[in-house]
Structures are given as C-alpha cells and as structure tokens.
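Subject: for your reference before the review

Hello V.,

The reviewers asked for a structural picture of the protein, and I figured it would be easier to keep everything in one thread rather than splitting it across files. Below is the amino acid sequence we used in the manuscript, unchanged from the supplementary table.
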Amino acid sequence: MAVDSDSEIRDVLAHETIAVVGCSSTPGKAAHDVPSYLREQGYDVIPVNPYADEIFGRPAPDTLSDVETEIDVVCIFRPSEEVSDIVDEALERDDVDVIWTQQGIRDDDAAERAERDGRQVVQDRCLKVEHRRLGA
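And here is what came back from the structure prediction:
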C-alpha cells in the first residue's frame, strides 16, 4: 500500500533494519550522509553497493540478494530507471516490508507491483527529512 500519512510514515520509521541500495562511501553525497544520519539515530543500516567493499566499516554486499541478514526497509538511492529491477529483487525476499525511494526517485509501475505483493511503498521522499520532521 502507498504510504502517505504521517502516522503511516511513523510506522515505517519504527522498523530497525534498512538496506540502502546505492549507498555511497563518499561523505557529502546524499547517498552517504542520509544513511550515516540513520545510523546515528540507531538504525541498522546495510550498505548495498557493487563498487565498494565496505561502507561505515561494514561489508557492502553487491545486491539485495547478497544481503544475508533480514531487511525491514529497502531504501533506494539509484536513478528512477533502475528502480524496477531493484523492486523485483526486493520482492524475491520475504523479509522486506517497505520499499522507499529517495527524493526525486519514483517508478509507479514498480510501486504498484510491490503494493500488490503486500509491501508498503514510499516514493520521492527523503528518509532523513521525514525522520527529522516527525521527530521519530
């Protein structure tokens, strides 16, 4: 289901483990600074990046399929045209409850597929902004 209300976003923010697809090892980039902020807030952030061996001192799997621990939320920091394949990969996992695309990123067809599969979807919003705004 599409997540739009503040109470629904608060529920999403109550999850603990966030896999960040496209997580960057470069400070100053949103794809680094947002997950870094989330780590500071106590979230278990799993960086997913095929071009980095480790980020934040932890191994960075190449893909969601390579993540060996459970994932609650998949946060996508990739161009909109890459969202569909990432969503399909997330839907192959039973543990993913939420798919979140960062600000400026959306794929309505992929979101519909995820919603039909019973996953919550947040599109075109920044996790850090929403966390701060709601004081979660």
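For the response letter, the relevant points are probably these. The longest strand covers residues 17-21. The domain at 6-134 is CATH 3.40.50.720 (Rossmann fold).

Happy to draft the paragraph if you're swamped.

O.
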